Each structure stands twice: as structure tokens, then as C-alpha cells.
Backbone:
């Protein structure tokens, strides 16, 4: 039907090497995130921890979950889903972070 | 396409309302992703609460976080990453139609998942022992509002663990089907979609680990934070 | 009903006659049968919710609380809200008309996941049974919003059971939305591009997005309340340092967009009715299509206007107030475009069109009074008064239910293969319009004068307007009883409907008989023209009964 667009790509066979690469990356990053948490980076501790977590999540989504080879529609939905979560965070924080400056 | 007949003409694996196997597979994958988006939003409620309360009660959260067992948490992270790899390999084997390998990798994934849950049980038991479980018996002397951290800890890790239990439950019939050789290089959508679910559960943990265990790791327990 | 003859042979059994056994209904995966199952279920829920509404109006006939104890009154309005919102309005159009028509409109044989579709109905039933059993055991008194800490700590009624019912029914909504999105993306007939889709389908696509993105958040919010109430794992309890306002944020993140779940499908129905009954392409088709999605998206950014007086920060209030004004833009675009479509159209005065006219007027009033409430300063005065009650009933009843009834009449011949009795249908449409306005317009004034909602008693000076409102509710109830009788009657004695009684455009009218066969089409249709191609020169007479 009309809505099929290059759907063969969604079922790309990923070489095992790519999986092993992601696996190694995730393991190394787990060690890094633990070690970094013991170093005092001031306000950047949280930021670094979250950046590492996001990098790990992107690796899993892209390679393990095959989004790198998925069609545009699937990518749009994946990105949209996480964007929506961000929207929830940002709008709620808009209240809380400002309320805190005014006194709870 | 335009000469579809309801009674005949389709390969057995294609349901009556689809035209091609490709279309059917595409629909299933898209449906699975939409389901995962609902899961993202579902966990999102907990994360929102975490952000707000952590912002208000940073010191209490750091003090409470210091009671969690980082080696066990890190070990469990590694276990989950391994299980994600074995799951990815199970899908890979299914794509190549390697029946025995699917079974092996699914079994490994289940084993690793069970290991994670076992370690989690040890951690929970420890919390019960120290009265760190929210409720009437909760006690955390010297720190106000620490209970909120433990509410979130149990809520988030509990919901995550529930997803693992469901995942292992789903894998049992899948394993049996794989043993019977139901999955071939032409038909492996269930394995593939379940893989997506399992990786999603892994991603949740990737965020839970630093947020719950590693919070304020550079600060002395209960010490004066300045954030 | 005689001028148009069907070009489609009606030899084969249709979806109703293919199998008569009860089992074939309870285990069906046919989207049309599931639509009918939903139609029966939500009609019963509507009846129940309507009876509860009647009890509310009965109590408010006099200033003193003389019919019910205050506690019982609290339970009645709570159950009215829970039943009407979660078990009638949210599934009303999508699960019945949407379920029935989307595959027909896009030239598919079924939804993408027929078994999941059936599952969603069973989940809805389980949720309904749980909530109704809570009601039978003694009810719940928190208001349909389940605000903490009352719901999580203090209320002594069946909060858990009701909330569980709502939680469960949420999953039926998620599954319906998921099914629709995949179907609309993957199952369209050859040639049916996005901008050839009927606006009904666009409206349901937008609704489905909200179901997918919003419903899980209310589910987790209910879970948090349940953990706090049941296991004492506190999240919102101020005694632990928790913040009850956080509950409101999470709750309204879904429940405000849920308003658009209820109205967007109605807007889709509205576009179909107006195009078919004015014999014109919907004015600015593309803009109307996009505005559906715009409403769905912007609708997620405005929830804070429910919380202006909740101790939310003034900055957040300001931003939410501004964003709330924005959502009026796409809604207004729709109203303008429908009106422009009517301009110089061959406008019929058949029943579906009467509802469509009603919708335009009532939705406009509902929408404009919404702007009063999204203005932060004014809302401080209006908050929790009958002005709010009148506002959302103008949108929900004047908008969503009007569209639902209009759509039900319009597609009734397609769904059942029978025509209803037109004169009676017109009469009831007028009755409903009059009764509705008489019920809810006085409430605007009451609210403006300061009568708060959710009380069983009120000062004596409000009685005249309350009596008017109760009188209106009586007329409205009679108006609703009419379709319930003549539509059922038509099933047995109604005139047989041709495939396309309205001479309307669209695959469901032009390519499928009434009622359609189990798999809708013998051959997958191909589409070569845009939606609503009502070319003036080819126009045939609109049928008048």
C-alpha cells in the first residue's frame, strides 16, 4: 500500500562487531560514571552523569534497537517520544524552580 | 494488490487484512515503538517527581543515596548490559535463522535478568533491615525528608523490576516457540519486538543507576552540600 | 429515500448477518463489530452518567440540601464526572465511530491489530466493572480529579477501586490510539495520500497522539496515589515534605489534553457533516487538517491554567496563561473554515446537519468562555464556580456530544443498513439544542455571580437561575430519550438504507454497501481524487425524506 517506504531497511542485519562495540562502550562508560561521581566537579557532577547516561542510551537506541537503520517515520516517533518527556520536565520545572526562588 | 481475495492468495503468515508480509512486519514494529513511547511517558511521571524533590531536598537525597550499595548497583548495571547484548544476539540469530543460537541467547538473557532480580532482592532486604522502607516503620535519624528519596527509590526500581519480571515471563513462551523452530529468517517479528522492549528496560536502568546510586558521591555522607 | 439507487450489488452477507452467534460477537476481531460493542457499552454508561446528572439537578432545584446528604451529593457529582469523562466521552467517538469508520475511510480491511482492538474493549469492560462496583459498594467522593492529599490520605470512600478502574480503562484508550496511528500510517489504500484523507481521519490521528503521549502519565499518577494510599509509600504527603501540587501537574498533563481527546474526533465528524450536507469541499482543507495536529500539540502545553490558584509559581501561571490563548488559534481556524464552507453551499437541514449547526454555535461559546478562564487574573475570580462548569459543558456536551449524535445519525444507515425516522430526529435535535442551552447558559451567570461548584446547597438569590437550569435538564433528558427510542426502532422497522443515502463522497459511502461486508471491500479501492470532491456540475439532488 501507499504508505510503504523503504521498509526493507528496518530489518537490517547488523554485524556482530557493532554489537560488541556498543557493549564495550557501555561497560567502559559504566566504570567512568562511577569513578567520575567521586570527583568533585561542583555543579557539573550531575551534568556529566546525565551526559554519560544519555550517550549510553543513544548507543542502545541506535545500534541495539536498530534505529540507525530504521525509516524516517520510526525515527520521528522515537525522537518525538523523548522530546515529549522533556516537555513534561521543562514545564513542571518552570513552576518548581521559580517557586523555590520565591520561597516554597 | 487490487485483486485481493479474502479466502486465498496470501501466504499463511500474513493476516487477512494485510497485503504483504512486509507491511505486516512494518506495522508491528511501528506499533511496538508506539508502545515503548507510552512506557517512556509512564516512567516519566516518576522522573518528574524525582527532579522536583531532589531540587527541594538535595541534602536529604544525598544522605539517603549514600546508604545504597554502589558495588551491587554497578554489578547489576553490568549484568543488564550483558543481557542487552545477549538479547541483541538472539535477534541477530533469528534474522539469520539460527534456531539453536536463538534458544541459547534467550536462555542467557533470562538467566542474566534473573541474576539482576536476585541482586535486587538482596538490596531490598537490606533496606527492610535498616528501616529504610517508606511507611510507618521508616526511620532515618537526623535527616528530614529522606523518606521521599526512598519512596522514589522503591517506586522507580520496583516499577523497573516489574518490567523485568514481565519480560522474563514473556520470554518463556518465546523460548518454547524458538525450540520448536517457529522463528525463521522470514518470520522473527516477536523476537525482534521483544528485543526492543528488553533494551528499553535496560535504558531505564542506565538512568536510574546514576540518579539513585551515584548522587553526590563526592560529598561526605550527610555532609553540607551547597547546591 | 428513493432517488438514489446503489450501484453496489448486495448479494453477500454483511458484517451483521455473517454470523449470528453470541460467541461470534464476543470473540470478533472485526472493527465494525467492536465499534458496535463499544457503542452499546458507552450508551449504557451515558445513561448512567445522565441519571447521576439528573440527581444533581434535582438537588439543586432548591437552595437547601433537602434531597441528599452532603456526603452523598459529593459522591453523586464525583461518579457523574468519572463515568462521563473516563467511560463515555473519552471512548465515545473514537471507539465507536472511529473504530467503525477509519478502515472504511482509508480503504483497509481492518485496523492494523484487530485482536488488540478486541482486547481494548475487554479492558474497557474490566475498568468499567471495577468502577461500577466501587459505586455499588458506596461510591467515591473525591471529585473526578482525585486531588491529593484528600484522595491519598483523608477520603474514606472507595478511592482505590475507582482509581483502579480508571487506570485500567486508560490502557484501552492507549491501545485504541496505538491501533489508529499504525493503521493510518500503514494501511491506506493506494493513492490515498495524507492530504486526501477525510478530516475525520485527521482528527482521529491527532486524538491518538494524545492518547499515546498523555494517558501513560495519568496512569502513573494514579499509581503514585495508590502507592501512597495503599502502601503508605508517600509521594505527595505534605507531612513527608511532599507537594500535593505535583499531583495536579501530573494529573493535568494528561487531563487537559484529554479534553482534546474528547473534542478532536467531534471536530472530525463536524467536517464530514458540513462537507456532505453543504455539497462543498471543506474550506481550507489543509489548514483544517493541520490545525487538528496543532491542537493536539499545543494542547499539551497549557495544563497549568487549571492551577492558577494552586500555589503554582506566578511565572508558570503567566506562561501557561499565554500558551492557553495560543490553543484558541487552531480551534478558531476550524470554526471560521466551517462557516466559510457553509457560505454559498447547498446547505441541507437534515438531522446530522442540525447537530452540526448546533456544534458551531455551542462550541464557539464554549471556546470563547475558555479564554475568560485562561486569563490568569479573571480566573482567580471564576475558579471553581459554575462558570467553569458551564464552560466545559458547552465544549463537552455542546461540542463533543452534539458531534457524536450528528455523526451517529449520519452514519447510522451505513452502520445498520436502516434509515431512522427523519421528522422525529429533527424534533429531537431541536429539543436537545434548546434543553442544553436552558440548562447551561444560566450556569454562566450563576458562576459569574459567584456560586461555587460542588456544593449541595446555595444562597437563596441563586434559586431562579437554578430552577431554569433544572428545567433545561429535563428538556435535555427528554431530547436524549428520543434518539434512544427511534434509533432502536429503526433497527427493526426502519426503511432499508441504500449504500449512499446522502449522496456523499468518501470510500465508506461510494465503495462499500450498507452495511459493509466483514472485510469491507471486495477489492482494495484506489483513490484518484482529493477528499470532498463535490464538483458543482456533477452534483445530484440531496435526498429529502
Residues:
Amino acid at each position: 500500500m501507499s504508505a510503504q517506504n523503504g521498509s526493507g531497511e528496518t530489518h537490517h542485519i547488523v554485524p556482530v562487531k557493532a554489537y560488541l562495540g556498543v557493549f564495550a562502550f557501555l561497560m567502559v562508560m559504566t566504570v567512568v560514571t562511577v569513578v567520575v561521581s567521586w570527583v568533585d566537579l561542583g555543579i557539573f557532577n550531575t551534568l556529566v552523569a546525565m551526559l554519560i547516561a544519555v550517550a549510553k542510551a543513544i548507543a542502545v537506541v541506535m545500534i541495539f534497537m536498530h534505529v540507525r537503520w530504521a525509516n524516517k517515520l520510526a525515527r520521528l516517533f522515537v525522537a518525538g517520544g523523548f522530546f515529549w518527556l522533556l516537555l513534561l520536565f521543562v514545564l513542571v520545572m518552570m513552576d518548581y524552580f521559580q517557586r523555590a526562588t520565591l520561597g516554597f | 494488490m487490487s485483486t485481493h481475495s479474502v479466502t486465498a492468495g496470501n501466504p499463511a503468515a500474513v493476516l487477512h487484512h494485510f497485503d504483504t508480509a512486509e507491511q505486516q512486519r512494518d506495522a508491528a514494529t511501528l506499533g511496538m515503538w508506539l508502545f515503548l513511547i507510552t512506557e517512556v511517558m509512564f516512567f516519566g511521571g516518576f522522573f518528574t517527581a524525582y527532579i522536583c524533590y531532589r531540587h527541594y531536598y538535595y541534602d536529604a537525597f544525598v544522605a539517603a543515596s549514600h546508604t545504597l550499595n554502589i558495588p551491587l548497583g554497578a554489578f547489576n548495571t553490568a549484568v543488564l548490559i550483558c543481557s542487552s547484548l545477549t538479547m541483541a544476539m538472539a535477534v541477530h540469530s533469528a534474522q539469520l535463522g539460527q534456531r539453536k543460537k536463538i534458544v541459547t541467547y534467550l536462555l542467557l538473557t533470562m538467566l542474566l535478568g534473573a541474576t539482576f532480580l536476585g541482586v535486587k532482592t538482596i538490596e531490598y532486604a537490606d533496606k527492610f533491615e535498616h528501616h529504610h522502607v517508606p511507611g510507618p516503620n521508616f526511620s532515618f535519624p537526623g535527616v528530614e525528608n529522606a523518606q521521599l528519596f526512598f519512596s522514589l527509590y522503591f517506586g522507580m526500581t520496583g516499577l523497573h523490576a516489574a518490567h523485568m519480571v514481565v519480560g522474563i515471563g514473556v520470554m518463556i513462551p518465546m523460548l518454547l516457540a524458538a525450540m520448536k523452530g517457529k522463528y525463521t529468517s522470514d518470520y522473527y517479528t516477536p523476537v525482534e519486538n521483544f528485543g526492543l522492549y528488553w533494551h528499553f528496560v535496560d535504558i531505564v536502568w542506565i538512568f536510574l543507576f546514576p540518579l539513585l546510586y551515584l548522587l553526590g558521591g563526592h560529598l561526605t555522607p550527610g555532609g553540607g552540600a551547597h547546591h | 429515500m428513493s432517488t438514489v439507487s446503489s450501484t453496489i450489488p448486495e448479494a453477500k452477507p454483511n458484517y451483521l448477518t455473517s454470523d449470528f452467534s453470541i460467541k461470534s460477537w464476543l470473540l470478533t476481531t472485526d472493527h465494525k463489530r467492536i465499534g458496535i460493542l463499544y457503542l452499546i457499552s458507552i450508551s449504557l454508561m451515558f445513561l448512567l452518567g445522565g441519571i447521576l446528572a439528573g440527581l444533581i439537578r434535582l438537588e439543586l432545584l432548591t437552595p437547601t440540601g433537602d434531597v441528599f446528604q452532603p456526603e452523598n451529593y459529593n459522591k453523586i457529582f464525583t461518579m457523574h464526572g468519572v463515568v462521563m469523562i473516563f467511560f463515555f466521552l473519552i471512548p465515545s467517538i473514537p471507539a465507536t465511530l472511529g473504530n467503525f469508520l477509519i478502515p472504511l475511510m482509508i480503504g483497509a480491511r481492518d485496523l492494523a491489530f484487530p485482536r488488540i482492538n478486541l482486547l481494548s474493549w475487554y479492558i474497557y469492560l474490566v475498568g468499567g466493572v471495577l468502577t461500577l462496583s466501587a459505586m455499588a459498594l458506596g461510591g467515591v467522593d473525591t471529585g473526578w480529579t482525585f486531588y491529593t492529599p484528600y484522595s491519598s490520605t483523608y477520603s474514606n470512600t472507595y478511592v482505590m477501586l475507582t482509581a483502579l478502574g480508571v487506570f485500567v480503562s486508560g490502557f484501552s484508550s492507549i491501545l485504541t490510539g496505538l491501533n489508529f496511528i499504525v493503521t493510518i500510517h500503514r494501511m491506506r489504500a493506494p493513492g490515498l495520500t495524507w492530504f486526501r484523507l477525510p478530516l475525520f481521519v485527521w482528527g482521529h490521528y491527532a486524538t491518538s497522539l494524545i492518547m499515546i503521549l498523555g494517558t501513560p502519565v495519568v496512569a502513573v499518577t494514579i499509581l503514585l496515589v495508590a502507592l501512597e494510599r495503599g502502601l503508605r509509600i508517600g509521594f505527595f504527603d505534605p507531612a513527608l515534605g511532599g507537594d500535593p501540587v505535583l499531583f495536579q501537574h501530573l494529573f493535568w498533563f494528561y487531563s487537559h489534553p484529554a479534553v482534546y481527546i474528547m473534542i478532536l474526533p467531534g471536530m472530525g465528524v463536524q467536517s464530514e457533516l458540513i462537507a456532505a450536507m453543504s455539497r462543498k469541499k471543506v474550506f481550507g482543507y489543509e489548514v483544517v487538517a493541520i490545525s487538528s495536529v496543532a491542537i493536539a500539540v499545543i494542547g499539551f502545553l497549557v495544563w497549568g491554567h487549571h492551577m492558577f490558584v494552586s500555589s503554582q509559581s506566578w511565572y508558570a501561571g503567566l506562561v501557561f496563561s499565554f500558551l492557553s490563548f495560543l490553543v484558541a488559534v487552531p480551534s478558531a481556524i476550524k470554526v471560521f473554515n466551517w462557516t466559510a464552507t457553509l457560505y454559498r453551499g447547498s446547505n441541507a437541514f437534515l438531522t446530522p446537519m442540525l447537530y452540526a449547526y448546533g456544534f458551531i454555535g455551542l462550541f464557539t461559546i464554549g471556546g470563547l468562555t475558555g479564554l475568560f478562564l485562561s486569563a490568569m487574573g479573571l480566573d482567580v475570580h471564576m475558579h471553581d464556580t459554575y462558570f467553569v462548569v458551564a464552560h466545559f459543558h458547552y465544549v463537552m456536551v455542546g461540542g463533543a456530544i452534539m458531534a457524536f449524535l450528528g455523526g451517529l445519525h449520519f452514519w447510522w444507515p451505513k452502520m445498520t443498513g436502516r434509515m431512522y425516522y427523519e421528522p422525529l430526529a429533527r424534533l429531537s435535535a431541536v429539543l436537545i439544542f434548546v434543553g442544553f442551552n436552558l440548562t447551561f447558559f444560566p450556569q454562566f451567570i450563576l458562576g459569574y455571580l459567584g456560586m461555587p461548584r460542588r456544593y449541595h446547597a446555595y444562597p437563596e438569590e441563586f434559586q431562579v437561575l437554578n430552577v431554569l437550569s433544572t428545567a433545561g435538564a429535563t428538556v435535555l433528558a427528554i431530547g436524549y430519550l428520543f434518539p434512544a427510542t427511534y434509533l432502536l426502532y429503526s433497527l427493526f422497522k426502519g426503511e432499508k438504507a441504500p449504500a449512499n443515502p446522502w449522496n456523499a463522497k468518501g470510500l465508506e459511502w461510494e465503495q462499500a454497501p450498507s452495511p459493509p461486508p466483514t472485510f469491507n471491500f471486495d477489492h482494495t479501492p484506489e483513490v484518484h481524487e482529493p477528499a470532498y470532491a463535490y464538483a458543482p456540475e456533477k452534483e445530484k439532488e440531496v435526498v429529502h425524506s
